[in-house]
Each structure stands twice: as structure tokens, then as C-alpha cells.
Amino acid sequence: MMQTPLTMTQMIKRAEKFFPKKQVISRTSKGIVRLTYKEIAERTRRLADSLQKLGVERGDKVGTLAWNTHRHLEAYLAIPCSGAVIHTINIRLAPQHISYIINHAEDKILLIDADLIPLIERCKDELTSVKAFVIMTDEDELPETSLSPVYHYEQLIASGSNDYEYPDDIDENEPAGMCYTSATTGNPKGVVYTHRSNVLHSMALGMADSIGLSEKDIAMAIVPMFHANAWGLPFAGVWFGTTLVMPGPYFTPKILAELIEEEKVTFSAGVPTIWLGLLKELEEKEYDISSLRAVLCGGSAAPKFVIRAFEQKYNIPFMHGYGMTETSPLVVVSTLKSYQEELSYEERLNLRAKQGILVPGLEIKIIGQNGEVAWDGKEMGELLIRGPWIASEYYKDERTADAFQDGWLYTGDVVTIDKEGFLNIVDRTKDLIKSGGEWISSIDLENALMAHEAVFEAAVVAVPHEQWQERPIACVVLKENKQVTKEELLEFLAPQFAKWWLPDDILFMDEIPKTSVGKFLKRALRDQVQDELQKN
Amino acid sequence: MMQTPLTMTQMIKRAEKFFPKKQVISRTSKGIVRLTYKEIAERTRRLADSLQKLGVERGDKVGTLAWNTHRHLEAYLAIPCSGAVIHTINIRLAPQHISYIINHAEDKILLIDADLIPLIERCKDELTSVKAFVIMTDEDELPETSLSPVYHYEQLIASGSNDYEYPDDIDENEPAGMCYTSATTGNPKGVVYTHRSNVLHSMALGMADSIGLSEKDIAMAIVPMFHANAWGLPFAGVWFGTTLVMPGPYFTPKILAELIEEEKVTFSAGVPTIWLGLLKELEEKEYDISSLRAVLCGGSAAPKFVIRAFEQKYNIPFMHGYGMTETSPLVVVSTLKSYQEELSYEERLNLRAKQGILVPGLEIKIIGQNGEVAWDGKEMGELLIRGPWIASEYYKDERTADAFQDGWLYTGDVVTIDKEGFLNIVDRTKDLIKSGGEWISSIDLENALMAHEAVFEAAVVAVPHEQWQERPIACVVLKENKQVTKEELLEFLAPQFAKWWLPDDILFMDEIPKTSVGKFLKRALRDQVQDELQKN
Asked: Is pLDDT of B182 > 90?
């Protein structure tokens, strides 16, 4: 067989040749911009040429600080296809982390959305590798900035050559992209994607048994492009000629609802907060979202009432997925099996509420207290993953040794797997409560609490305990104008859990500390809870 | 990223772990046999173990002469997954070609369906590498045979160990399978598939924009498993947990119709003859074939009336595909683009009648008389293909140099490509009629003739011509009890073609010589036509 490498240049080439009329729809500060793949392909070539003229060489890192726009998409293609490496920077990181990862990755050039310039101005004196700044702006003129030297993105597009040709000698194992993921302690850790991993992951997204992304889709990339490749939608979408909708900066649920209605979006993916927000918006105003053939939810588990609302009120299949920066990210999807479609709605809902089944191409192993766990949906163990789109290390980072062992990624996620092979995320290993030699899932308790009509948010953490080693304490934020007592909540939980699972205490709070990606910051919460308990 | 190899062991492992209850339905001489993937996986391990005990080592070739059955499927998995190479032998080859390819591949063991034993008995004295024969029979006892030593397949399954483990050090570029393709002259030419090519090709089959094969499908593998991996359905089907229907030996249109109705087949693939036969059967008796979500047609182009019948009478989308033994085989599929779905039925029919659009992962180039052809649906050129599931050579064969040049496969097929990227096979380069410096497509004339209600079959060949170099002559077989004159047929063709395209003569025949796979044998026909013309 031919040794044709799995490289990403084929993606934009296929879009240009076979789908030149298909569009990328991008929300900018000047309104909606529509570009055909013919135009995107040309602009991408011109950008690649201009970056090369600015000194970007094979293997160089080019950082982006940007929202989901057509320009960011062009950078997504131009940088790897020209043999460089796109480093997507999480704009929500703390300033010292932003400068750390730019220096650690040795970014040579930064592409920055105009409104995000302050993030870099703030740390520009710490940057050790950056030679130039390219400003992605909708205005004709460059904004005032203390950064230097600065270039205007659109001028680089104009001056780049349309005759530029992507190198044809890229090896499929060459790096194509980088993304840093927050660590519990210390600096973010870098993951390097290769051409091969991005191509295979895109094929996986196109498979009917995962999400079946297709030319027929109008896919909205809600997940930020600085989070695990926006879950791979931009790469796969371009390759398949999918119409891509880029919602741009500072979008609100209202903007998303309008985009779905006006652009007839068929598929989108996002974290539970997105879908919760959209549901709220839909309750306030009527939108036609019937074009959606499915939505995918990941990042953390969506409460069942959200799944139920999408499916029963709006008739839109709500799929769970699971993945992480280290896994490109797609690992499992809650696509039901043929014979599961015949189950009752409640049974199907219970399956959909799990993270789902392994996509073809990967392997998993679940290691509990006594080796591999039983497939009974009960025994808990840490999820290990292996496969061609799973990272094998953190970039130049000693913490590699913790997460990558014997060829497997140790995810740090505690899961169960049922007899049908459906994974359910139970907890993070570090958030699991070890009580009397048994494990208690903080997430299960949180979900049960959040199902109470008075509860807005709930987080459960472990506190040290003399006899039981650890015991669970629940922290609860109530909805506005709602009241409930500790006793009522414990009574509410009692029928759902073994007695020893029930929290030893419930603390009412105004808010729960969260990470930049909206997940509970359990470390901070644990400290806060202990302070609180000592006060009492 | 992890360097996890793309090997085929993951296919059967995934089926066993995630889809143990799903079935393979196999038609045998004793009726329908149903095996779960749990059983198939166990039998496959046992077979692999027994073959190893019979002396099969890493890289050894194991030949199969067999119909599409569960046993052939087990061999499809056990042989490559244990590190050996499955060589599927075309049972319709001439005896001297069968012995040639067995010797050329150096098959160490042959797995033979009981009723096909005579094919090997006939040439057993010529075989130079075969050490043992395994008979796949539905009977408890081995049949009488002059072959030796012989083993009973089911006894090997019984004696093999279920604790056998597939090697975990297979490189993705190791050979996994072999298939020989007939040559115009001389011996058949061998194509070697690798683990990588089979895995990537299977992913391509699962993609929504190709055929979207899925766990939800009940797929019937009509294409013989000795033809280009039965177009890849067995591998992909096992991987995805698809219910597979294996129609077994000597099936008829009636048997296929019954299987579709009884097993609720959702997808199948075959050559035009299969679909013509099925249509005829459906006209004679009523069957419920509404479970079919689509059928795929390849090998050669189906006449439009067949497509129309499936779509309009039975409401089943009829997809064309194109590929060859050298291409694993999937290259293009006539999946319509989103905006093409809005065309009129006749326009869509015209697109469906073409071979279709390139699947993601491959590259094509079409070289005409003046370099790359225009995408105008008119200019003809030879199709060149490149990609990770395209052969790079013929196995130990000097003819490699003719077909593989500069990293491209020269298909020998003449095509046009329209502005939407839809390929249309016009002819074989060698069957094209070169008249006065222009090209005439024999296939276009044949299709037009076969659209006449009195014509059963038509083949058009070139005869040498003093002035024009070559001129077309049509050979026509009429339907029973139908009459039409040469003049009437020419009049029928006239409005559809330029005048110089019209055949110089039309010869009426009783039958047209065909190859073992049912394609017109144009070389023999040309000789016959010249004899005929000289007689007149």
C-alpha cells in the first residue's frame, strides 16, 4: 500500500476542490461575514505565505489568542499545513500562566484578536520568544498598542501570495498543534497534536456511530477554539465541506439561539452551561431550533432535566460525550445501540445521561481497587485510554511520568462501565471521597442535590475524618427566592443512596469557586469548607 | 501522540467487548446459522491458535477458496489478527490461474469450502507451497478427497485454545491480506493489503459522507469475499458491531430477496447484475424490502432504469460507487451534496448515475490529452489515484511499472469530472475508440443502446479504420420475442450523440462474451467482430 502520509493539507485542499461554494459563517464586530471555502482556501494560502515571510519556519510555534472566527479558522489551517505548529492559548488563563505557556512553547509569532490585546500587553515584558504580533481586527487600521512589531492580519492576507504551495513532505507524525491544559497545581501542561492524530480524530468525528459529521451539516463550533481544537469540529468540518458557523466573541445564549434559527444549524457541541443557558433563553423567547439534528455535550455531565428538555420539549437528541485535551478530545459518545432504541424513554434517558460508548479506534481499561473492574455499572475504577489520537506525554514536562505509564493515559477520572460498555464518569480520582475503605462519588451526590427544585448549584467535597478517613460535606447554592433546610435536603437524598453515602453536613453558600472553564474548584472549596467547619 | 498502530485486532476485540450479543447470520447448506460476535470472537481465537499449531507463522500466506459465510469471516479475522496474511482466491479463475496465484503467493495452507474441493483437486499436483488443506464443511465428517493432508475446520475450532492471544507487536504496515486481479493478458496480478490500509478503509466506510456503515445496519455482503475484501463490509461491519448477513453459496435473486425481507437488511452492495436480478425477482413476487436504507452499486455502471426503479418504485436510494482491487476498493461514492438534494429528480438521477465524489482521505488527478482535464463533465482523461488505501505495486510482478508511476495508481479508466467534482467512468483506456483524433466512449453508446426497450445487452468495440484510425461497431443481444432493425436503432441513437459517434455498424448476436466477473470481454469481442465483418 502507498505510504501516503495522513497530513492536514488534504483537508483544505478537498474543501477548495469539492466544496468551493460551501460557506463559513463568522460573527464579527461588524455583523455576520460569509466566506466560501474557495475564499477561505485562498486566504489560508496567503496567510501561510505571509507567516513564512515573517520568519515562521518548519516546526515553529505560532500562538493564537482568539475567539471562534473565520480568521482563527484560517490560522487553524495555514499554520499546520505550512509545516508550523498552531498553539491555541486559553484566553481565560491567569496572566502569569499565559506568559508561561507562550515562553514554554517558544511561540515565535502571536495572532491576537484586537479586543484581547490587553491580555498580552499585560505580560509582554515577560515574553522571551515572540518576534512579532499579528492583530486580527475587523477595522482597517491597527488599534493603539504597546506591542511591537505589530502587523495587520488583513494586510498580511492581502500581501501574501495566492501561488503559495504547502510543503508536500510533511511527515504524519510531525507536530501540527498544541494546547495547554490547566493543572491542579503549578503551571498548565502542554499537549502536542500531530497531523496523524488530527486526521484520524477527524475521521472518527465523521463516523456514523460517533457524531457522523457530514457535508450536509451546518455545524456551530461553540466550544472555544482554544479548548482541545474546539473538539475537532473545525478540522473535520473543513475536510468534509460542512458549513461552519463561528459564533465570534462574547456570545450570549440569545446570540446562539439566533444563529441556530437564522443559519439553520444542524449540529453543535458545548459544555452543560451552554445548553442550560440556551434552554433558559428558549423559555423566555420563541426560536425555531428544529434544524438541530443533535447536540453534543461534554466537559462535564449535563443534569438529566437538561437532556429531557432537549429531547421531549424540542425533539432534539442530546448526546453526551467524554474527552479531554489529552485525547484530541473524542473518546466516548452516548450514541445508543440499535436494540437500545427499543427501550423505554426513561431507560434511554439513563443511557444518554452516561458518557457513552468508545468510538472505533481507541482502547480503554478501567482499573479499580482490585485490578480491572467488572462491567456491572457499579464497580468504580480509574479510566485508562490508549490510541492514535491520545497524547503520549506533556510537552517538556516532568509531570508526564504521573499521567502516562506503560503506554496508557491515566485520565484521573473515576468511572463505571455497564454491561453494554457505557461509561459513566463518577468522579475525579482526587475528588472521590474514600470513606471506610469504600468510595463515594461526589458527582453522584451533586447531581442528586441539583435535581432538587430549590438548588441552583451543589458541590460535594471530602473532609478528613478520624474514624472513616474521609467524609462528604455538601455545599449548596440556592436559587433566587427559594428556601430549603439542611434536614429537608438530607431527607430528599436519603431514598437515593446508601446511608453511609449521605453528607455529614450541608453548607449553604452564595457561590461555589470555579475554574476558568467553569468547573468547580474543589481544592479551594475543600479549604473553605474546613475553615467553615472549624468556625462552628 | 501515542504511536498506537492501526492494526486489525482492534476490530474483533471491539465487537466482542461492546457488541457480544450482535449477530452474524450465515446461510449454509443446513439453513440459516446465527452466531453472536461473542461466539465469532471465540471461534476466531480458536482458529488462529489451530492455524498456528499447523505451522502458520508471522507473514505466512493462508489461502481461502470460499463463499461468503461465517467461516470465511472467521478466517478474515483470525489470519491477519494472528500476524499471517489471508489470500482470498477467486473461485471463478481458470484452473491454471488458480494454481499460479497459490504458488505465486506461496500459500502455506488452504481453507476450502467443501463444494469447491474439485477446483483444487484439479490442480493439486501443480501446487508448490501448500502444506495442508482445511475443509470448511457443514457436515460432521470430512468429504472424500484426493487432497492430503486434510483437516476438518470445525475440529480445528474445537481443538484450538480459547486462551490464544493475538500478538500485540504487529506493525500497521505489515501485510494483512492479498487479492489477485485478472489481467487483460497473462497471469492475475496480486495486491497486498496492510493492517493500516484495512483500518483506514474501514473508517472511510463508516463515514457519514461515504456509506455511513454503522452498528445500526444489518448489512448483507453480496460481493464475493474473494473480490477486493467484499468491498470492505466484513472488516468494517465487525469493527462497528454491524449485524452481518452472509448469503452463502450459489445464491439466487430469490434467496437474496428472502434474506432482505426476513433479516430486515438495511444495506447491501453489489454489481449491476445483482440489482437487475433482484428487480426481476421483485416483479415476479412481492417481497417487503423496505428495510433497505440504501444499496451501493459498483463494478460497472448500472443503467439508469435500474436506479430509477429502486428509487421510484421501492423508495430506496441507489448509490453508485467506484473502486478496484488495487484501491481496497472504495474511491468515490455518489452521495449527493446538501444543495444537490434540492435539484429536480431527473437532475439527481443524472448525478446518481455517475460514480460520484471522492471519499475523504484520497487524492485524484485526471490526465487527458493535454494534461489535467477541465472540471466540465466533458473532457476525458485517465483517472490517477493516490492515498493510504491504494496499492503501490503488484506483488512480485514486473507489471507494477505500468500501473504505478510517480506515486500514483494509473487506473486505466477514462473518466470525466463535472464542476461539482462528480466522476463519471467513460471507458477503459483500452476500450476507448479513437476516431479522427477524438475519443468516443464505448460505454456511453452501450448505455444508450441498452435503454432501448428491445435491447437486452449491447457492447461497442473499436475496429481499425483507414481514414479515422478507429471506428465504433455495436454488438446487440435482443430481448426474447423482441425485434428491432439496425436502422431503427441508429435512428434511436441519432438525437443523443454527435453524428461521428454513431456506430458504423450494428451486429445482432446471441450472446456477448464475458469475463468471470460478468464484464464484457472486449478483446474477444473485437476479434469476433472483425471476423464477422470480413465475412460480409
From this structure: no
* Any A CB within 8 A of B196 CB: yes
pLDDT digits (tens, 9 = 90+) for A228-285: 999 999 999 999 999 999 999 999 999 999 999 999 999 999 998 899 999 999 999 9
Helix (H, G, I), strand (E, B) or coil at A448: helix
Distance CA A250, CA A244 (A): 18
* Strand pairing category for A175-181 and A189-194: antiparallel
The Cα diameter of chain A in Å comes to 73
In angstroms, the CA A86 to CA A174 distance is 12
When the pLDDT of each residue in chain A is averaged and rounded to a whole number, the result is 94
**Over 70: is that where the pLDDT of B184 sits?**
no
- Domains B1-22+37-203 and B431-535 belong to one CATH topology: no
From the list A93, A124, A92, the residue with the least C-alpha distance to A107 is: A124
Band of the pLDDT at A517, cuts 50, 70, 90?
A: low
Residues of A catalogued as catalytic: 181, 326, 434, 439
B390 to chain A, any CB pair closer than 8 A? The answer is yes
Domain boundaries, chain A: 431-535
- Span A327-337, pLDDT tens digits: 999 999 999 99
Residue written as cell 434552554? A279
Nearest CB neighbour to A240, from listed B173, B213, B360: B360
Distance from CA of B141 to the nearest CA of A (A): 38
Task: Identify the three-state secondary structure at position A31.
Answer: strand
Query: Could you give the residue numbers annotated as active site of B?
Result: 181, 326, 434, 439
What is the average per-residue pLDDT within A513-536? 81
User: Of B420, B290, B402, which is closest to residue B352 (Cα–Cα)?
Assistant: B420
Tell me what the mean pLDDT of segment A101-113 comes to.
Answer: 98
| Interface contact B17-A194, CB threshold 8 A | no
d(CA A86, CA A179): 9
Q: What is the pLDDT of residue B133?
A: 98
Cα(B424)–Cα(B419) distance, rounded to whole angstroms?
Answer: 12
The DSSP bridge partners found for residue B367 are B372, B382
Please tell me whether residue B108 adopts helix, strand or coil conformation: strand
Domain over B431-535 is classified CATH 3.30.950.10: no
C-alpha cell recorded at residue B43: 471461534
Kindly state whether A206 is in contact with chain B, defined as any CB-CB distance less than 8 angstroms. yes
C-alpha angle A271/A302/A360, rounded to 5°? 75
Mean pLDDT highest for which of A460-464, B357-361, B458-462?
B357-361
The residue among A323, A328, A211, A325 whose CA lies nearest residue B4 is A328
Q: What is the CATH number of domain B1-22+37-203?
A: 3.40.50.12780
ipTM for this prediction: 0.90
Amino acid at A497: F
Residues B360, A207: C-beta atoms closer than 8 Å: no
On the CB side of B528, CA atoms within 13 Å amount to 19
Q: Given strand B150-152, what is the order of strands in its sheet?
A: B150-152, B132-136, B107-113, B61-65, B85-88, B175-181, B189-194
The pLDDT of residue A177 is above 90: yes
Q: How close A192 gets to chain B, by Cα (Å)? A: 7
Residue B518 phi/psi, 5-degree rounding, is: 85, 10
- Give the A window 228-267 contacts with B, CB below 8 Å: 239-241, 243
By the CB < 8 Å criterion, does A359 face chain B? Answer: no
Chain A contacts of B229, Cβ < 8 Å? none
The separation between CA B364 and the C-alpha centre of its own chain, rounded to angstroms, equals 20
Over 90: is that where the pLDDT of B532 sits? no
Selection from B460, B447, B431, B459 nearest residue B496 by Cα: B447
Interaxial angle between packed helices B9-18 and B70-81, expressed in degrees from 0 to 180 and rounded to the nearest 10: 120
C-alpha A323 chain-centroid distance: 8
State phi, psi for A255 to the nearest 5 degrees: -65, -40
Question: What is the pLDDT at residue A519?
Answer: 75
